[in-house]
Amino acid sequence: MQQVIFRPARRSDLPAIVALLAEDALGSQREVVSTPPDPRYLSAFEAIAADPNQMLAVADEGEEVTGTLQISFLPGLARKGAWRGQIEAVRVAASRRGSGLGQRMLAWAVAECRARGCGLVQLTSDKSRTDAHRFYERLGFLASHEGYKLALPPA
Amino acid sequence: MQQVIFRPARRSDLPAIVALLAEDALGSQREVVSTPPDPRYLSAFEAIAADPNQMLAVADEGEEVTGTLQISFLPGLARKGAWRGQIEAVRVAASRRGSGLGQRMLAWAVAECRARGCGLVQLTSDKSRTDAHRFYERLGFLASHEGYKLALPPA
User: Fold this and answer.
1) Closest chain B residue to A45, measured at CA
2) What residue segments make up the domains of chain B, in order of their start?
3) A113: contact with B, CB 8 A cutoff
């Protein structure tokens, strides 16, 4: 495997990240790919970059972005005031699946949560993503919760 | 029903909120109740208050706090850069369950998410909380995801 660096995303990574989100089976129905990226993605990137409790990250393999995820560091009262690290929008390039990259990227993200003092890491995964479920369970995650979503259509 | 105000929590609400967290079947094993509250709760309260993307809220019924929840407003790239409102740590006082208070509190929280421009509201609920699952489903939430947790014990 080529050397991989996991690092916070830069604005110049945005087209590659949006492409990874759109490459996904569910994402292909939800995302729009264009050059330059849709301004809604740029707004979201700026909001993430402005929030010290958000980290958008990429797997960088010699100038090619081959993976992405976002960590939200969440303060909360429950569990004696434990911080939570929440991982969202995990994607690995199709060409790199099965290579161990996803596992290394998640291990890196969990270490980032630990370094920030989190007592818990949490994520949700669509029930249709059975391969992902086995992946998270191998990493020690427990499917202890039901994950609920409520879409809010524009008014 | 007495008039209820849903509002951001004040520091003086902290003992009542911790008591609500601890009253819960799962919370009773995870929380510590003391006067004054354990300093870890105060630190967590301050972290929430300092973060404009966090809102700890209470149901206030004439000086008695009868419910609580936390909303995290999360920027993200997925779904065309949609903001998400995430609801955590929902609790209703035992004496007020079945009164409709929980439903009103959740409806208020969803409206807050809508007012902040969120395209999605999400929450997870422990798989043992089957009453809560019926409650969320009545409110229109779909259990579309598996919710994974990984505890990070102190090093």
Assistant:
1) B77
2) 4-138
3) yes
Interface of A with B in 19-48 (CB under 8 A): 21, 27, 30-32, 38, 40-45, 47-48
The residue type at B22:
A
Q: From residue A51, how far is each of A19, A71, A73, B135 by CA, in Å?
A: 23, 11, 10, 33
Alpha-carbon distance A85 to A119, whole Å?
8
What ipTM does this complex have?
Answer: 0.95
Domain at B4-138: CATH code: 3.40.630.30
Contacting A residues, span 90-109, partner chain B, CB-CB under 8 Å: none
DSSP per position, B109-142:
HHHHHHHTTEEEEEEEEETT-HHHHHHHHHTT-E
Helix (H, G, I), strand (E, B) or coil at B44: helix
Cβ-Cβ contacts under 8 Å, A37 against chain B: none
Q: What is the pTM of this model?
A: 0.95
Query: Which parts of chain A are beta strand (E)?
Result: 5-8, 54-61, 64-74, 83-92, 118-126, 142-151
pLDDT per residue, tens digit, chain B (155 aa), is 569 999 999 999 999 999 999 998 888 889 999 989 999 999 999 999 999 999 999 999 987 999 999 999 999 999 999 999 999 999 999 999 999 999 999 999 999 999 999 999 999 999 999 999 999 999 999 999 999 999 998 76
Q: Which two tokens stand for residue B16?
A: 């009542």
